[in-house]
Automatic annotation (TrEMBL):
The keyword Cytoplasm does not apply. It comes from the Bacteria. Residues 35-52 have a biased composition (Low complexity). The lineage of its organism: Bacteria, Bacillati, Actinomycetota, Actinomycetes, Kitasatosporales. It comes from Streptomyces cavourensis. Keywords: Membrane, Signal, Transmembrane, Transmembrane helix. InterPro entries: TAT_signal. The chain crosses the membrane at residues 68-87. Residues 35-62 are annotated as: Disordered. The keyword Translocase does not apply. This is LPXTG-motif cell wall-anchored protein. Residues 1-29 form the signal peptide.
């Protein structure tokens, strides 16, 4: 496979990945008007609830991040393995 074709395949794969990621939904901290109205009608207003605008999700000690750490470490290890395999396969080239 020529170098030009390999570069073209890499660019095509990168473009395809970016196009696919374009459709991943974003996590906006907005609340629909009907949900806000239902919340106001259901419970009396507390001092913390007087803020207007979008509110972020509560994060605290109840969030378990262990699966994310294990998954991230595994993917990092796989990526490092691919890089090491590629360097080993290509062989050492003298620096010019």
């Amino acid at each position: 496979m020529s170098v030009t074709r390999r570069t073209l395949l890499t660019a095509t794969a990168s473009g395809t990945l970016l196009a696919a990621l374009w459709f991943v939904p974003s996590a906006n901290a907005t609340v629909e008007a009907t949900a806000q109205q239902a919340d106001r009608d259901a419970a009396p207003a507390a001092a913390e609830d007087t803020a207007t605008g979008p509110q972020l999700a509560e994060t605290g000690p109840g969030v378990d991040t262990t699966p994310y750490l294990i998954g991230g470490t595994a993917l990092l290890g796989i990526g490092a393995g691919f890089v090491a395999y590629s360097v080993r396969r290509s062989g050492a080239r003298p620096v010019v």
